[in-house]
Design brief:
about 600 residues; HET
Length: about 600
């Protein structure tokens, strides 16, 4: 394999493989007269057609040697698929073979079919692929999901992980901007300029651009809905502008490269050798025996919140399949309440919820710049779903050191003062079944639902430790003067609000308020810094080397004058030393949180 690269690239701290993946767009590779049984070689890619032999070979090897097939179910399971030969949706019992489609919708249209009776081009194309592979059914959301019954639609949204997990193959439009673009190599000419050269009596051919890089820069990978579709699928066939890319739980293959699969698998043929490129998605569920829902829940949510949603009211629906999957993972089950993981041996323990509420947030990075953090008022402020931003971490786990001082009441009826204890809610209201009804309302489904209606049910009345703090505002001019005195602080501090520590040994804690709340704008800095603020203590899981109660995790609360409710406006660790309980205003109080 040949690549011509600037010499200065290899003076960096990165390892050579990362450098090549990041900075080298394509390679030259020997093109042998026929496929070699032991050597990687180049393969000709045609602009007007894809290589179905490549697809069939990948699937056949996966079927023969890997564990990527659909899971066995002990109970009857039915899904709706599209019978393209008879042009109708049908309900069938699993297991059976069907191809699922993952794509970008583009501008919203009322009807899935065009005025002339034809289908969007990407759907026509996936049907052509199904015909070539002799798979009689396809699953396409616009044809297979109930569009008019909100209750049935919610059930299907909760089952998205199951739909993609049971697919024989998932076809991904990794290049299109809408459903009308079509797939490159099926209905669209591919952008192929495959360089060849003669060197030392041998023909060398370009590998074309790294398809993983093309996918990572595609519109498809930025969409929230496509995240769970990708990680649930056991096999992905991704169409880029130049070539197709196959990925399953065990191997990755490019159309432009012939890889002798036996030689590049482990001896048991269950997985690729680790020396080959890492998968984009399937490593998440590559080995179910190693999966740990408690450890993986934060990673799923972080990756999901890095993506965007056209409609903010879809924040939970677009990840509902993954959340349901985490609930069903035997041995590592993680239930959730409005997307908040319940980290406790028993979900009925109040601290299960408050521990899961200890998440941190940052703005999404788009094209090198960071987007502001925004509040989504359709969802509760204490859930990450109520915010536009990246969930950076869930700071507390099952070893939360502050668990005995919390009690929670949950509103049991809308527009009522009636409530249940958290344990009583789980027992009397069916726990997660009540959560499903709440999610249905919050998702804004149904013609009678106002999707702009602010969240107001259920409120949580939490009794726990509350720390009262003061804020200080550091203006841009103050930061500039500070950096001039201490240049080492350049890039480490920025203008904004800081929580004042209770003693000289503790540090100021920077906070980020939502940008779309006029009550918390920097224009009101004087008023904000004159008042006292309540911070609800959620717990402390001390880092190694720290004392037990150092760096407590809190959420800052604000009573909204506009909505007349108390909401979370920030969450994070206070960089305070052990002993802060004695030097700060810390008391047990009750707060009704929306």
């Amino acid at each position: 394999m040949l690549a011509v690269v600037p010499e200065h690239l290899f003076g960096r701290e990165e390892n050579e493989r990362d450098i090549l993946q990041k900075h080298v767009p394509e390679f030259m590779i020997p093109a042998y007269p026929g496929p070699s049984a032991s050597c990687i070689s180049g393969r000709k890619v045609h602009a007007d057609k894809i290589d179905f032999t490549f697809i069939n070979d990948c699937i056949a090897y996966c079927n023969a040697h890997h564990r990527c097939g659909p899971p066995l179910s002990s109970t009857p399971d039915w899904i709706t698929v599209y019978d393209y030969r008879n042009k109708k949706a049908v309900s069938k019992q699993l297991p059976f073979q069907y191809i699922a489609l993952s794509y970008v919708w583009g501008p919203k249209e009322e009807e899935p079919c065009l005025s002339d009776g034809s289908s969007p081009q990407v759907i026509e194309d996936v049907i052509k692929i199904a015909e070539q592979l002799e798979i009689p059914y396809v699953w396409v959301d616009s044809y297979c999901m109930e569009q008019h019954d909100p209750h049935k639609m919610q059930q299907q949204l909760n089952s998205m992980h199951r739909i993609y997990k049971n697919a024989y193959l998932t076809v991904v439009d990794g290049a299109g901007y809408s459903r009308h673009n079509g797939l490159y190599g099926i209905s669209k000419q591919r952008n192929v300029s495959q360089t060849t050269l003669q060197l030392a009596g041998r023909l060398w051919i370009s590998t074309l651009g790294n398809p993983q890089t093309l996918v990572q820069n595609s519109p498809w990978i930025t969409r929230g809905w496509t995240y769970q579709e990708a990680i649930a699928s056991p096999r992905l066939l991704i169409f880029t502008e130049e070539q197709i890319y196959f990925e399953c739980k065990a191997m990755r293959c490019w159309e432009s490269i012939h890889i002798p699969l036996d030689c590049h698998h482990r001896k048991d043929k269950l997985r690729f050798l680790d020396s080959l490129c890492e998968p984009l998605f399937c490593q998440y569920t590559r080995n179910p025996k190693e999966f740990d829902g408690r450890g993986d829940f934060p990673r799923y949510i972080k990756h999901y919140t890095q993506r965007s949603l056209t409609n903010s009211h879809d924040a939970l629906n677009a990840i509902a399949g993954v959340l349901r999957f985490l609930e069903k993972d035997n041995g590592h089950t993680v239930y959730n309440f409005w997307g908040i993981p319940l980290y406790a041996p028993e979900q009925k323990d109040p601290w299960a919820l408050t521990t899961g509420m200890a998440w941190t947030l940052r703005g999404r990075e788009i094209n090198g710049s960071r987007e502001p953090i925004l509040r989504r008022h359709t969802f509760p402020s204490w859930s990450w779903a109520g915010w536009q931003g990246v969930v950076e971490s869930f700071e507390l786990g099952k070893f939360n050191h502050y668990v005995t001082h919390t009690s929670i009441l949950i509103q049991s009826k809308k527009e009522s003062q009636a409530s249940l204890s958290w344990a009583g809610y789980w027992k009397a209201e069916g726990g997660m079944e009540m959560d499903r009804r709440i999610n249905l309302w919050a998702s804004g489904l149904g013609p009678s639902t106002n999707r702009d209606e602010p969240y107001n049910y259920p409120w949580l009345e939490i009794t726990t430790g509350i720390i009262r703090v003061k804020l200080r505002y550091a203006s841009p001019r103050f930061i500039e003067e500070t950096v001039a005195k201490w240049p080492s602080l350049a890039g480490r501090i920025k203008p904004g609000f800081f929580i004042v520590p209770p003693d000289e040994g503790s540090r100021y804690t920077p906070i980020d308020f939502p940008d779309n709340d006029p009550e918390l704008s920097t224009e009101r800095a004087d008023d904000i810094c004159q008042r006292e603020w309540d911070c609800m203590l959620l717990g402390y899981t001390p880092e190694r080397g720290y004392k037990e109660k150092e760096c407590p995790f809190v959420i800052m609360l604000n009573y909204s004058q506009r909505r007349k409710v108390t909401e979370r406006v920030w969450g994070g660790r206070l960089w305070w030393n052990d002993g802060w309980e004695k030097s700060s205003d810390f008391k047990e109080r009750s707060v009704r949180l929306h």
